[in-house]
C-alpha cells in the first residue's frame, strides 16, 4: 500500500479502476452492459447513467488482456505523469486524460459506434510517451525497436489479433494524442490560434498547486513554490509555454 500511495495519483487511480472493473466483469460479478458507452442509457430520463462516460475506459479485453492492458496503462501513464516536461503544472496530466477521453468518445463512440475505449486511451498515452522519448529503445514483448514505433506496434498487434474493425476503435487514441500536441503548441505557435486546452486554477488546487511541494533529499529539503495563477507571461497549458513567455516586460537597463 505504501508503494501504491507513493505512485502518481491519476495513474494509480486509473489503473486500479481498470483492474478492479475488468476483474469484476470477467469474474461474473458485474454486468458489462452496465458500464459500456451507450447514449440511450446515458441520457435516460429520469435517471441518466452518467457514469458510462467514464466506466467505458475501465474495461480491458478478456483473459491475458487484463494483465497486458493494465501493465501498459500503468507503465506509460505513470512515466508521463512523473517525468514528462509537458505536464509541469499540478493537474496538467489529469486535464490531458480528460481531453483524450473526450476526443475518443466523440470519434470512437460518436462516429464509429464503439462502446469500450480502454485500448484507445492506452494507445493515446503510448503515443505521447513515444513523442517524449524520441531516439530511445522500446521493448515490445521480445522485440526491441525505436520507441517512436511503439503505438504503431501496439495497433498492429490489435489488428493481427482482432481484425480491422477492432483496430479502428483504438486508433482514435492516436488521433486524440496528436490533437493534444497540435492544439496547445503547434496551433498557437504556427497557426496564430488560441490555446483552449489549459489546466484551470481549481484543478491545480485539487492536485496541491496552492501549497509548496516539500521533497526530502539526502542533502537537505527542497521546496517547490506553488504554481502561479495564469496571467500575463504565464501558461498552465500542458507545459508548452515558450521559454520567453515567463520573462518580464523587457525594460532597458539604465533607463527611466
From TrEMBL:
Keywords of this protein's UniProt record, alphabetized? Answer: Endoplasmic reticulum, Membrane, Transmembrane, Transmembrane helix
| SUPFAM superfamilies, alphabetized | Rhomboid-like (SSF144091)
Q: Record's Pfam families?
A: DER1
Spell out where the chain crosses the membrane.
12-29, 50-74, 94-127, 139-162
Where does it reside? Endoplasmic reticulum membrane
What does the record say about its membrane topology? Multi-pass membrane protein
Protein's job:
May be involved in the degradation of misfolded endoplasmic reticulum (ER) luminal proteins.
Family listed: Belongs to the derlin family.
This chain belongs to the protein called Derlin
Species name: Stereocaulon virgatum
